[in-house]
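Priority: medium. Attachment 1 of 2:
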């Protein structure tokens, strides 16, 4: 599991750690990690051309110190000082002493064009708002391909908002980000995360001073530990029975895909509730599923997955499923008929357009502020909200957030959301909490998307579904 902390938490931990260290020692730890990554990216440090973009804070200090160390190893180091009066004094002195040069304004373009590596030390966790003036112009030059070299962001790409993952204005787009001490939301949540490139975390000894993280990113081992493990004496009921209320005459395929996802998510039995013609299609594809016309008549379940491809006019069915008071997942059309607030375990799985409609805002606003809007909806409906998209974010009403790291554009295809809804519902029926069910499902779903993409150029939702069993098998091992 990797942890993400807020700027306030990082600053408090840095203060506590710095109180036990000699002056400047913490920055030197950060710089050592930064230099190691830069040296690894260069085809030899000696003779390499390095351009340091240094703002007036400690982020600029890191970059100047790194430039100094690279210069000592034989690199040609140039620095652009964005705020010369405020430039980090020790870092600048070290940079000059190592033979680094300050670039005159007129020579910035030439220096960037010749650079093998650009160090972005304009702003770090002290950033407020996007880049302005000359800094914005530099970021634009870098994006416009004015350098053939790698752009390495120090701590985070300058100009993105550290705590929200929002991009309030112009910002640097990096190829790599070397980040210190712990993760930041900007490095895992789009749109900011898209500007970070490859992440290189550097341990500076902060962890003992940091609180439990409010935002986490699961890894394979976390997901394996969370996946249901049916005991030796389990039966199909004890493994969980999931009800799927999905599909319609208009969208029968959504039911087929959601039931498919549910069958592969560990539940012992899947009960499908829906119109006869759709049920016939579901059973033709999945003879192991049991079907009935409505939530009331299909038999007992331990959790409901509601909404994928439900179409219009199904309010009564949704109300019947919700009335059971069981753990519930609500997707797609089901989101039109939400109760005022949930009182039991609930997982909502909107994409940005659906969440925008729920909150009465524009889709663009949701995409620009994914964390904010997922949190707002979680608080509003007292439900875990899994916001789908280029980064899938899960916000719990208790304040915890998870960000899924396995997303892939291979999933941006019709019907993959139905597979996810079925899978997550199955995990709910298997006893996972909404936060665990949603994050485990998103993780496996992303891996299935990648696996399907490795096997086919542009995988369909059916390909993603077909890849799920092997993904779950490799995560948890074979059932005994
Ligand atoms: N505190 C420490 O000991 C350590 C700090 N480290 C580095 O220090 C960074 C944080 O340094 P600072 O707190 O000095 O903050 P920054 O270097 O991120 O920013 C410095 C100043 O820039 C100004 N500023 C903010 N937004 C601006 C904008 N949009 N346009 C123009 N100016 C703006 C503000 O006055 C801010 O205080 C970290 O990101 C990391 O790189 C690392 O060296 C690790 C150790
Ligand atoms: N650009 C993207 N990168 C990664 N995943 C994406 C991207 N766009 C969509 N997805 C994922 O694809 C799935 C699409 O779900 P959804 O929008 O509900 O489609 P549908 O209703 O057609 O199934 C979600 O899991 C979502 O997170
Ligand atoms: K930076």
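Attachment 2 of 2:
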């Amino acid at each position: 599991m990797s942890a993400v902390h807020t700027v306030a938490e990082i600053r408090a931990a840095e203060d506590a750690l710095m109180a036990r260290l000699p002056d400047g020692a913490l920055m030197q730890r950060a710089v050592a990690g930064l230099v190691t990554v830069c040296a690894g990216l260069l085809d030899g440090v000696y003779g390499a051309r390095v351009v340091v973009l240094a703002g007036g804070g400690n982020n600029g200090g890191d970059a100047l110190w790194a430039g100094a160390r690279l210069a000592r190893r034989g690199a040609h180091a140039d620095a652009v000082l964005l705020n010369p009066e405020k430039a980090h004094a020790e870092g600048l002195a070290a940079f000059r002493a190592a033979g680094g040069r300050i670039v005159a304004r007129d020579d910035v373009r030439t220096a960037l064009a010749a650079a093998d590596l650009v160090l972005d030390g304009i702003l770090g966790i002290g950033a407020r708002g996007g880049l302005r003036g000359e800094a914005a112009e530099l970021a634009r030059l870098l994006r416009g391909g004015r350098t053939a070299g790698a752009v390495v962001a120090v701590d985070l790409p300058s100009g993105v908002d550290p705590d929200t993952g929002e991009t309030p204005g112009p910002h640097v787009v990096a190829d790599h980000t070397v980040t210190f001490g712990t993760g930041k939301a900007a490095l895992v949540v789009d749109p900011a995360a898209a500007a970070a490139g490859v992440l290189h975390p550097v341990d500076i000894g902060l962890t003992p001073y940091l609180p439990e993280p409010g935002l986490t990113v699961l890894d394979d081992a976390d997901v394996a530990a969370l996946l249901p493990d049916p005991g030796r004496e389990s039966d199909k009921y004890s493994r969980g029975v999931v009800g799927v209320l999905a599909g319609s005459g208009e969208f029968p395929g959504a039911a087929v895909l959601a039931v498919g996802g549910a069958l592969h998510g560990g539940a012992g039995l899947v009960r499908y509730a829906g119109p006869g013609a759709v049920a016939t299609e579901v059973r033709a594809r999945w003879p192991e599923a049991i079907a009935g016309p409505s939530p009331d008549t299909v038999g007992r379940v331990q959790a409901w997955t509601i909404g994928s491809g439900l179409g219009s006019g199904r309010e009564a069915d949704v109300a019947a499923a919700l009335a059971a008071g069981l753990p519930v997942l609500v997707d797609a059309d089901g989101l039109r008929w939400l109760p005022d607030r949930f009182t039991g375990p609930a997982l909502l799985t909107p994409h940005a357009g659906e969440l925008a409609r729920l909150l009465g805002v524009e889709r663009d606003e949701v995409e620009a502020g994914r964390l904010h809007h997922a949190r707002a909806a979680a608080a509003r409906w007292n439900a875990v909200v899994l916001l789908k998209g280029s980064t899938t974010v899960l916000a719990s009403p208790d304040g915890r957030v998870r960000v899924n790291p396995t997303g892939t554009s291979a999933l941006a295809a019709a019907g993959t959301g139905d597979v996810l809804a079925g899978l997550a519902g199955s995990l709910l029926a298997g006893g996972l909490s909404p936060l665990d069910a949603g994050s485990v499902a998103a993780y496996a779903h992303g891996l299935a998307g990648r696996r399907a993409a490795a096997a086919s150029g542009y995988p369909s939702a059916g390909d993603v579904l077909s890849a799920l069993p092997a993904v779950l098998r490799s995560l948890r091992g074979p059932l005994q």
